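In the design runs reported in the main text, the only information available to the sequence generator was the tokenized backbone. The following block is the verbatim input for one such run; it is reproduced so that readers can re-run the procedure and compare outputs position by position.
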């Protein structure tokens, strides 16, 4: 694969990361209640094992299979929890070709190869998108956390929204919504989250995240590998494997974003079209 193609696929990966932020349906509906006391017990144990996280950073290697293409790229990940999430894609010798930044209400993305940038609020994106972009869901998926779609935190009052059952030493928490969307979380006896599944019965959209290779040296243990599979309309659309190294938590982070004064502003649709991504 040529250097140009590697960079192009890296940019495709950056654009597809935007899709992960929109893994819930646009229509807001109430969740179906179905919890019990043991659900509350699980979340209380979870909170004890997972103290408050302020910042997170890691070096990662990302492998992507998409539309018959495969690539590997280094991606630097930095997160100021509940505030900003930043990805720097560096497919060749640490040279950055794209940077994506998610805040709680907007997205910025810089495409150095095509000298263009994206800067839009979620409200602007949602006006023309069939999915609703959400910062908190993306953050939770990358940080190996259980989440309630679209919510910053899961409060004690929200525990009953989850149904729960145990099998072979595993706990499965599930939330089903009337619009056909379901989220399923699988954890072991030590409250380690092993898998997250999101599916929508009406669109046949599915996202599966498998967490593995937990590092026991630092508590809580963190998975050093995430395997993501995304199906759309019943067909495999994307595979992403993320391997973590140099994970640091609750360290002081300084995040900046490159100037894009001489770059051309584009919409998300224009960005995707410029990268030859099929809708």
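Verbatim output:
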């Amino acid at each position: 694969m040529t250097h140009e193609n590697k960079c192009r696929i890296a940019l495709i990966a950056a654009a597809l990361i935007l899709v992960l932020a929109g893994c819930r349906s646009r229509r807001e509906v109430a969740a179906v209640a179905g919890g019990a006391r043991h659900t509350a017990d699980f979340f209380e144990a979870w909170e004890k094992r997972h103290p408050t996280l302020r910042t997170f950073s890691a070096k990662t290697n990302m492998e992507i299979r998409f539309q018959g293409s495969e690539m590997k790229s280094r991606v630097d990940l930095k997160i100021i929890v509940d505030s900003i999430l930043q990805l720097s894609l560096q497919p060749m010798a640490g040279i950055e070709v794209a940077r994506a930044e998610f805040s709680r209400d907007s997205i910025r993305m810089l495409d150095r190869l095509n000298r263009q940038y994206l800067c839009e609020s979620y409200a602007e994106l949602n006006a023309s998108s069939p999915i609703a972009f959400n910062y908190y869901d993306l953050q939770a998926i990358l940080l190996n956390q259980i989440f309630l779609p679209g919510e910053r935190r899961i409060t004690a009052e929200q525990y009953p929204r989850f149904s729960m059952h145990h099998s072979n030493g595993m706990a499965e928490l599930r939330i089903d919504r009337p619009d056909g969307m379901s989220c399923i979380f699988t954890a072991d006896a030590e409250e380690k989250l092993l898998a997250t599944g999101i599916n929508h019965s009406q669109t046949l959209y599915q996202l599966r995240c498998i967490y593995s290779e937990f590092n026991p040296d630092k508590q809580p243990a963190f998975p050093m590998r995430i395997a993501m599979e995304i199906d759309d309309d019943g067909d495999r659309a994307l595979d992403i494997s993320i391997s973590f190294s140099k994970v640091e938590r609750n360290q002081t982070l300084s995040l900046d974003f490159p100037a894009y004064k001489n770059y051309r502003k584009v919409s998300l649709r224009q960005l995707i079209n410029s990268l030859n991504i099929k809708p």
